[in-house]
Write a structure and sequence with these properties.
By secondary structure, chain A is mostly helical. The first copy, chain A, has 13 helices and two strands.
Chain lengths: 304, 304
Amino acid sequence: MTTAAQKFKQSLAANQDAIEKGLDTLLSAEAMTGETERPASLLAAIRHGVLNGGKRFRPFLVLESTRLFDGNAEAALRVACALECIHCYSLIHDDLPAMDDDDLRRGRPTVHKAFDEATAILAGDSLLTLAFDIIADARTDLNADARLKLISALARAAGLGGMAGGQALDLQAEKTSPDEAGIVTLQAMKTGALIRFACETGAIIANTDQEDFSRLSRFGAVIGLAFQLADDLLDLKADEKTLGKATGKDTGRGKGTLVAMHGADWAEARLDALVKEAAELLAPYGEKAGILLEAARFVATREN
Amino acid sequence: MTTAAQKFKQSLAANQDAIEKGLDTLLSAEAMTGETERPASLLAAIRHGVLNGGKRFRPFLVLESTRLFDGNAEAALRVACALECIHCYSLIHDDLPAMDDDDLRRGRPTVHKAFDEATAILAGDSLLTLAFDIIADARTDLNADARLKLISALARAAGLGGMAGGQALDLQAEKTSPDEAGIVTLQAMKTGALIRFACETGAIIANTDQEDFSRLSRFGAVIGLAFQLADDLLDLKADEKTLGKATGKDTGRGKGTLVAMHGADWAEARLDALVKEAAELLAPYGEKAGILLEAARFVATREN
């Protein structure tokens, strides 16, 4: 492992710890002061769905993109936690019987299995709402304009024109296979939008000029594309391995993807090109962007 | 009907028209400009769940409380629409099989019946997200601090310590009957929080002093209490009428309420007292508050 790769792994682990602690605090009954009570069962369901040892890759991108511009680290931690609330709400709702119908996530029962469906729906709704509460709060110590920009950008990345819309396109794709442009749009919305938002946050938090914002925004899009391509490539390889003995859900996991359409060689060449583009985008920041660049390499070459 | 009551009915109808048009515009594909597409089926499900001829009582309170302080009417219309998006998302999710399992709302198929469950979940999620998008947007022509205050207050009214938390308490109440304090908390969160927020918005939009804000906030709490009491009173009367022939869902609709606990006479005396308190709270604004006061009377005495 190169020194840069080691630094990246260390940073990922350190950020993961910071996020875990941040989420634990934000999702504790004591932190939630207010006039009314927080129902214990709902809070327990939320904690079950969030504090599950996830890699916290999106929050990592928030923290590192903020470091790149020497932005407010404490504010970034709150924004990173808010983003993870959105990601986790989407997983809780995705796992529901009416959606992907999954019983397990990270080896533990999904929220609707550990609690019940109604509680899982409400836990997701509450987390989605809480994300905006966290950013709007004055404890996210940024000026009002920056907080509003973050709220707008997050709402767009998560909503009808972003993640939720992408999930709806995914439901449609099960009935009618999308063409190449359709797949690109679906993936950019479903998984790309939140990853791009994560990379943009640093520029918003540090109030950079438009050029820095655009570089980070494009870097986020590039990482999102690499993330999805690598995922689809892993699925294709898994499908090839299990060919003939695949059953149920595993069958055709790699279908309806650009990788299934163009093949593994094309995907690997495309991933190389994306890592090169990431390097060009981050070039002006020199060594300071080393960890982010390594993150792009990691995403493009991961094997699980 | 008194002149005041007529004015109230006219205002309710006029505001309903304005909200219907506002929502229709905000939920049209053309209004949703952006880099990505809005999936047609998801947008159709959202429109089905929102543009259903509701009374728009919460938005009415936003518009009238803003008029009381001569606040920005266009901004108030956007805030009112955002609030209605939250209310409608909660109805879409409430109607799901895992929650209340309702097939009809206002005589039309519920969203999961007209579309499917997955689409209904995503439609609710998208509407919830869109509410914050609408308020954060610069087209909601208020200064950044006011927009942030509205976002914070809405998130708290809708989330874990508000509406969603109240729904979780309601689920618990089906298993273990809450005591009187428990019922008060449940109702204040489940239905009270959004109504109170609606009344507070005028003070936030017009940037009033703390005293005006407190008056409107308490007025909102009073209207919320009256709304719930009147509802429970109607249920009690309906239960009495259908006693012996009630089946399934209708049985005991009035159970677990303050009205069931203390009786109809107590409820009517309490409603009178709430209307008196509303009048005292609005007294400093004289005739200007006539429509809001009439709204309190209407809520307390409605017969359906």
